[in-house]
């Protein structure tokens, strides 16, 4: 058991390697990650490195998960397209859902296009709900695994758990 | 020394169980032509991510992992050096073929002519880092690198010319990934 119900739900379903760059919307989740054994969590320096390391873990036979702010999707795009989508590598992703009208301006332009961006590359996504950790973990792993591609759970304000 | 000679030199020094991540472009194609092996993962795109892919492998596997990188590739994903130097996986072996240029795209000059890559790796926290100019000047460089404590970094200076470029790899990306993963079996670490 960690401080994060979402992390526990994912770990129980086999996630053995997590790489990510923190977001304040995912503070509880990352607090849980910091308690993991050293080889189970990679605090990446940028989101593209995080998803690339996740590809390495999957190739190594361990179920990965990437976590990041939605601004990081921009950095990831080349890796997601020419690695995960092209080689058909499963990758469950937790992505914060920043950019609402009342959010800071630096989050708005990409934040308000996050869903359109994922749709453009046919990456399946859904939104986290309060108390949905178990079912959402199930969906993330089943969807990314069966479709052999990235799948994104968008975590909005107040959905970190 | 040519790229082909350098890659043959490195691959001949590896054990069968070693895992290799070969950089997209001429390096992966040459590694395939020189000695295709199921435990080599061939990158086709995602330039700059050789070290990060290899790091994900090194953290989840017990075998030695060799990142077969290029200078332009490494410069594009320079943060990867901080990741490896910070995490310090003892089974991580980074080899950079340094021709001072972007050979795959037409030989445009790269900043590796000005930036000392081995010095940056050492400063980032690699346990061992040095540069060599091929087996004529230093016949034991690859051997020393593989015997050094990891993470270990070796930059090998090679000629920018490529008289006989290797053809594209006749495998689909899906085949490349699945063949590699099957050869390894389930990971034991990271749990």
Structure description:
The complex is a heterodimer of chains A (161) and B (191). The longest helix of chain A is centred in the middle third of the chain and has 16 residues, at 72-87. Chain A has a six-stranded parallel sheet with strand order 2-1-3-4-6-5, sandwiched between helices. Chain A has helices spanning 5-12, 27-33, 47-59, 72-87, 105-111, 114-120, 133-147; strands at 15-20, 41-43, 63-68, 91-96, 125-127, 150-155. The relative contact order of chain A is 0.19. By secondary structure, chain A is an alpha/beta fold. Chain B is an alpha/beta fold and 191 residues long. Chain B is built from eight helices and eight strands. In chain B, the strands form two sheets. A six-stranded parallel sheet of chain B has the order 2-1-3-4-8-7, sandwiched between helices. Chain B has a two-stranded antiparallel ribbon with strand order 5-6. In chain B, α2 links the parallel β1 and β2. In chain B, α1 (3-12) crosses α2 (26-35), α3 packs parallel to α5 and α5 crosses α6 (117-124). The mean pLDDT of chain B is 95. Chain A binds chain B through residues 16-17, 19, 37, 39-40, 42, 44-46, 48-50, 52-62, 64, 78-79, 81-83, 86-89, and chain B through 19, 21, 41, 43-49, 52-61, 77, 79-80, 82-83, 87, 173-174, 176-177, 180-181, 184-187, 189-191.
Which geometry of chain A do the CA atoms define? globular
Number of helices of chain B: 8
| Strand content range of chain B | 15-25%
Assembly level: heterodimer
Radius of gyration of chain B: 15 Å
Q: Quick check: average pLDDT of chain B?
A: 95
Main sheet summary of chain A: 6 strands, parallel
Please report which band the strand proportion of chain A falls in: under 5%, 5-15%, 15-25%, 25-35%, 35-45% or over 45%. Answer: 15-25%
**Helix share, percent of chain A:** 40-55%
Please give the order of strands in the largest beta sheet of chain A.
2-1-3-4-6-5
